[in-house]
Amino acid sequence: MSNLRRNPRALYLAMVPGLVLAGMFTFYPILAAGYYALYDWSGFNSPRIFVGLDNFTRLLSDPFFWGAFKRSLIFLLGTVPLQMFISLWLAVLLNNQMLKLSNVFRTLIFLPVVTPVAVIGIVWTFLLSPFNGPINGLLLDLGLVTRPIDFLGSSSTVMPSLVMVYVWKWLGLTMIYWLAALQTVPDDVYEAAKLDNCKGGRLLLLIVFPIIRPFALVIFLISAVGALNVFPLIMSMTNGGPFFSSEVIEIFIYRSAFATAEGTRTQLGYAAAAGVLFGLLIMMLTLLQAFISRHSGKSR
């Protein structure tokens, strides 16, 4: 490390491989999407016809785009509050060092985070199956239902089912964020609260939460960005169905690019325009998260 400080040129050279990879797989695709969004192009060797902002104009009048946008917001509003509330409750429970096997419980809750999304999708598709799924079998045995529920095949149950699976998948990661925030609360605060006989929910709401509130805003934005990037889970479980009931923005972009309603003709330019708008939404949330993180850091 000392040699690198004496020779800044070596430090810059060490950054070159990372910058090259970032340019190839991050910056170039972003610029290419912005470029192709201005063209009517079906990909490969087909001619590119410059259409300017027509793709964006079509998007703003496309009911399928707005339907996907609405479902993305519904998914976000369904997952983020639930995920934050349950993970905070678990973090408070497992933050107690006197609790036996707390590390074991943390590991078990975090395990779905490191499990591949494709595996999660396959397993939960089987669990929720109306034919031989264990969940339907349990509901029938308990007498809670009289016939199997098609959780992923009905427009009224598919989104709640996906929300449940998504929250279960990422609950452990949000819990870790909360645990890190709770570690910043001084022990003196708990001692003073104990002397005032303040405990339980009052301790959390009146004393602990105001201290970790800056972290809560950051955790909320991280969870919101994550809830908008749900393509692998939905593709592996429903493929956007039934009848577009679970088609979010990412699925709409994929369908527009590779599985359009116009037969075999793809619409890569149109999909790129949708990707640009979706990327701008993600960027706004990311910049807001960075601003809040910087502001909360200065205030502390």
From TrEMBL:
SUPFAM superfamilies assigned: MetI-like
Keywords per UniProt: Cell membrane, Membrane, Transmembrane, Transmembrane helix, Transport
InterPro entries named among the record's database cross-references: MetI-like, MetI-like_sf, UgpAE/MalFG_permease
Domain ABC transmembrane type-1: 69-289
A cellular component term, taken from the record's GO annotations: plasma membrane
Principal location listed in the UniProt entry: membrane
Transmembrane residue ranges: 12-38, 73-95, 107-127, 163-182, 203-228, 268-292
UniProt topology in membrane: Multi-pass membrane protein
Cellular compartment(s): Cell membrane
Any one Gene Ontology BP term: transmembrane transport
Domain of life: Bacteria
Pfam families found in the cross-reference section: BPD_transp_1
Family designation: Belongs to the binding-protein-dependent transport system permease family.
Protein name as annotated: Lactose transport system permease protein LacF
Organism: Granulosicoccus antarcticus IMCC3135
Lineage, highest ranks first: Bacteria, Pseudomonadati, Pseudomonadota, Gammaproteobacteria, Chromatiales
Gene name tied to this protein: lacF_12
